[in-house]
Write a structure and sequence with these properties.
The protein is α+β, with helices and mostly antiparallel strands. It has nine helices and 17 strands. It is about 40% helix and about 25% strand. The protein is rod-shaped, with a radius of gyration of 44 Å.
């Protein structure tokens, strides 16, 4: 060793250096032993038969055991619970023998305070010739992790139970809404001599009450009234307006069946009822059917509602336009437009709400529209109201998620002479 001047060191300095090296070596040895004994995890070494050859203080404290009663006297499996022993024999030991090492295995040991969850990692130490000599094992405290996992499991169970309860509540609500929705519609359409009637109601969402409505009922022995409408909005408020509109129109028709008068009465009722709060209004068509010799006279009026469509027996289809009719319930005085038509054998009068024509179709999600409906109706064979309603039901289904509003359909018509004779023979 040379000093900075290139001369040999003083003998006293060389002794001090050797003494310092010895102190550092002793400290390193003490630190290594202390690290093993007081490590934050458990260490043990076992012979190949599982006999414990060495174990650190940390693991002894977890187990509540003394070193003298453990080393050479107990096996690794003696530290495990019954379940841990079973898993060790059936999975842990075979995998360790086959692979030479295994890590992160969850086991339970018999801790001083009871069962203690741990994660175990073991590795087989071999000789230069590859012969297994002993097994080195590290044991990690998994109590916090197990508690977290149990809490997470409980949270998931609570969430799953809440989800199931919410789904059950939703199903019950849907059932209740379906019953209420049906109560706002006629249970079935009445039989009219010499006429055929068919209807369909499509619910866009089972979670919301719709505001579409229709009805068909007798005025006297020779005349029948019908209406179809659409209340603004959804939910309980819309249902309340729907109920009010239906019963108002039925009562008004029995007093004075003139279509314009009936809609005027409904406008007065809705405006007076809701003028002081949130405005409520609807669109509607009201009409009267009067069968005659070989045809049916139709007189109807519209308040802001899409025009009715007539499918003729010759295969054509055209709208019975009612322009200028105002929304019902918005203004104290409203103007309504009436129209008249004659249905011959094979003709069908179709009323519908705008959920049909405002359905979104195609890649650009454009509105289906009135013209598309007329074209579709023209393409259908003129086989009466029920056949047309069946075809339109299929059309609604084809819209998929493009149909986001409820749709009500009501079809009225005269059967062809051949169909009428067939019906008479059946009865």
């Amino acid at each position: 060793m040379m000093c900075r001047t290139g001369q040999a060191p003083d003998p006293g300095e060389e002794e001090d250096v050797h003494a310092t090296d010895a102190v550092f070596t002793s400290l390193l040895e003490d630190s290594a032993e202390e690290l093993y004994e007081q490590a934050p995890c458990g260490y043990l070494s076992t012979l190949m038969d599982g006999t414990i050859a060495k174990i650190n203080t940390t693991l002894l404290e977890w187990l509540g055991l003394e070193r003298s009663r453990t080393v050479g006297r107990m096996r690794f499996t003696d530290l495990l619970t019954v379940g841990g022993k079973l898993y060790h024999e059936t999975h842990f030991a075979p995998l360790l023998q086959m692979k030479g090492e295994i890590s992160g295995i969850a086991l339970d040991i018999k801790g001083a305070a009871g069962r203690m969850p741990v994660l175990v990692t073991s590795k087989v130490k071999t000789s230069e010739d590859g012969e297994p000599l002993l097994i080195r094992t590290t044991v990690f405290d998994a109590r916090d992790r197990r508690a977290y996992e149990m809490e997470l499991l409980r949270s998931r169970q609570v969430a799953e139970e809440a989800r199931r309860q919410a789904e059950a509540d939703r199903l019950r609500l849907q059932e209740a809404l379906a019953v209420l929705q049906q109560s706002l519609l006629p249970a079935e359409l009445p039989k009219i001599p010499g006429l055929e009637a068919a209807s369909h109601y499509h619910t866009a969402s089972p979670d919301l009450l719709g505001g579409d409505f229709y009805d068909l009922f007798p005025l006297d022995a020779h005349r029948w009234a019908f209406f179809l409408g659409d209340v603004c909005g959804k939910g309980p408020q819309a249902a309340a307006v729907t109920s009010l509109a239906r019963y108002t129109l039925r009562a008004a028709a029995l007093h004075d069946p003139d279509p314009v008068t009936a809609l005027t009465t409904l406008n007065t009722v809705l405006h007076d009822r809701y003028t002081s709060g949130e405005g409520r209004y609807c669109t509607a068509i009201f009409g009267v059917l009067q069968p005659d010799d070989g045809h049916v006279e139709v007189h109807l009026a519209s308040g802001g509602h899409p025009s009715t469509l007539i499918q003729r027996a010759d295969g054509s289809a055209d709208y019975l336009h009612t322009p200028g009719g105002m929304l019902i319930g918005v203004l104290p005085q409203a103007r309504f437009t009436d129209a008249r038509a004659r249905l011959l054998p094979g003709d069908t009068l179709l009323l519908y709400t705008d959920g049909l024509t405002e359905a979104r179709t195609g890649p650009d999600r454009g509105l289906y529209g009135d013209e598309a409906l007329r074209t579709f109706t023209t393409a259908q064979p003129a086989q009466g109201p029920q056949a047309l309603i069946t075809a339109l039901t299929g059309l609604l289904a084809s819209f998929g998620d493009g149909l986001d509003d409820d749709t009500a359909l009501l079809a009225l018509g005269m059967p062809t002479l051949h169909a009428a004779i067939g019906s008479d023979n059946l009865t």
